[in-house]
């Protein structure tokens, strides 16, 4: 198992419960692939450098987790089809 960081941007029009549901869903995607979540750090609403899906702001969430390398590609594919997630980035930690 390797350590990874995932940062994703959630649509700004979701309330706290909606954002928490998205975070829970992403956590479930990681757990379903035998991953272990180490830390979840919500950064809150921030201004974007450029508009994404006609939005000027987004709710940032940082997750640190451990997962098998083969499962990361599946996780990224699932994040692409998750509508409230506007952008995501998975980075392997040393």
Short description:
By secondary structure, the chain is of the alpha+beta class. It has helices at residues 16-32, 69-81; strands at 2-10, 36-52, 55-67, 85-92.
* Overall morphology: globular
Class inferred from helices and paired strands? alpha+beta
Arithmetic mean pLDDT: 95
- Our estimate of the beta-strand percent is over 45%
CATH architecture: 2-Layer Sandwich
Give a short account of the largest sheet: 4 strands, antiparallel
What does this structure look like?
It is a single chain. This protein has helices spanning 16-32, 69-81; strands at residues 2-10, 36-52, 55-67, 85-92. The protein is α+β, with helices and mostly antiparallel strands and 94 residues long. It has a single domain (2-92), classed as 2-Layer Sandwich (Alpha-Beta Plaits). The model has no long low-confidence stretch (mean pLDDT 95).
Blueprint (SSEs and pairs):
Elements: E1 2-10, H1 16-32, E2 36-52, E3 55-67, H2 69-81, E4 85-92
């Amino acid at each position: 198992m390797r350590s990874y960081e995932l940062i994703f941007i959630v649509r700004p029009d979701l309330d706290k419960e909606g954002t928490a549901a998205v975070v829970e869903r992403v956590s479930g995607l990681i757990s379903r692939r035998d991953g272990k979540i180490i830390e979840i750090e919500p950064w809150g609403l921030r201004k974007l450098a450029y508009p994404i899906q006609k939005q000027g702001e987004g709710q940032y969430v940082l997750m640190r987790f451990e997962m098998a390398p083969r499962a990361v590609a599946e996780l990224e594919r699932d994040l692409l089809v998750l509508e409230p997630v506007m952008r995501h980035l998975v980075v392997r930690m040393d």
